[in-house]
Amino acid sequence: MAPTLAIVGATGAVGTVMIDIINNRESVPWGEIRLIASARSAGKKITVRGAESTVVELSPEAFDGVDIALFDVPDEVSAQWAPIAAERGAIAVDNSGAFRMDPEVPLVVPEVNPEKVHERPKGIVSNPNCTTLSMMAALGALHREFGLRELVVSSYQAASGAGQEGIDRLHAEIEAVAGKQVGVRGGDVAEALAAAGLPEETPFKAPLALNVVPWAGSRKDDGWTSEELKVRNESRKILGIPDLKVSATCVRVPVVTTHSLAVHATFDREVSVARAREVFDAQPSIVLRDDHDNGVFPTPAEVVGADPTYVGRVRQALDFPNTLDFFVCGDNLRKGAALNTYEIAETLVS
Ligand code: 2RA
């Protein structure tokens, strides 16, 4: 019998993208596709592969008969409900931070470590944070070829990483500064936002319109943010290099969707741009946009809504023979969240 898939958080931003991915797949291996959400959204009707489906309320019984349950809900909801789904016989594929670093829960990127889906003593598989995910297809491919040793990364993260609240805030800020002489001497951005009546409280800690903000996530020890530690810890776990040296600076930029990263990756062996290009070309989920002569490189705006990871600006670091520098863009709501979670489910049934 065809397996039953559930989507928990089906009406949220990522859940909606999951449904879009399912609706646009040529074929899917699922029999029933069950949509689950909080009481507030229960009863809503959503079309899935041509059939109208009614959202059911999250409850233990909602998992009866489910083979795989995709979760995109806040950490505390996943922490409570993914084990319940597993107890009821489903494999929970979770896109929250609740289980990512649990040694008994694999953290999976299907292009990099698909075999790990089978090592799941808790019945839970985790999906990485979108910032880490945006560079993983590229790094995994390079690691197989050259052996990754050190990673220095700067992120350029989209407002949608902070959810709908982040998207709404950026749109409101852009509206508040549009057409005004701000961002110049005497035209303070924060004052323009206050004059437009925007609350001082913001998901970004500082104005994001006409600005960049070197802060993403929550405060951690010694000046680091949660987002920077996720890049370090999750990269080590996914790539299977527990002592990988990693240093990350995570920055929020006034982009709505698609995270970008500037990556400085050092390998065990000497690297060449030509070989790196071949490696990227051979990876179906990577699009290489790298034509120095014609000014071709990826930008987040062109990647919105795309499934692949876009890579460009590939250079051999001038003073480091084993090091490549490159720029990578990935839609944080697709590969960074919904798509990778769905691909884990596909890997589980393949
Ligand atoms: C962010 N990576 O961009 C986070 C979302 N999971 O804020």
Quick rundown:
With 350 residues, this protein is α/β, with parallel strands linked by helices. It has helices spanning 13-24, 75-87, 130-146, 163-177, 189-195, 226-239, 273-281, 300-303, 334-349; strands spanning 5-8, 33-37, 45-48, 51-54, 56-57, 68-71, 91-94, 124-126, 148-157, 245-252, 259-267, 286-288, 309-316, 323-330.
Question: What are the defining features of this structure?
Answer:
single chain; 350 residues; alpha/beta; 6-stranded parallel β-sheet; 6-stranded mixed β-sheet; 14 strands; 22% strand; binds 3-amino-D-alanine
Strand content: 15-25%
Number of H/I helices: 9
Distance from N terminus to C terminus (CA atoms, Å) equals 14 Å
Q: Spans of 5+ residues with little confidence (pLDDT < 50)? A: none
Alpha-beta content class: alpha/beta
* pLDDT averaged over residues: 97
Strands of the largest sheet, in order across it? Answer: 5-2-1-6-7-8
Oligomer: single chain
Q: What value does the Rg take, in angstroms?
A: 21 Å
- Order of secondary-structure elements: EHEEEEEHEEHEHHHEEHEHEEH
Number of strands: 14
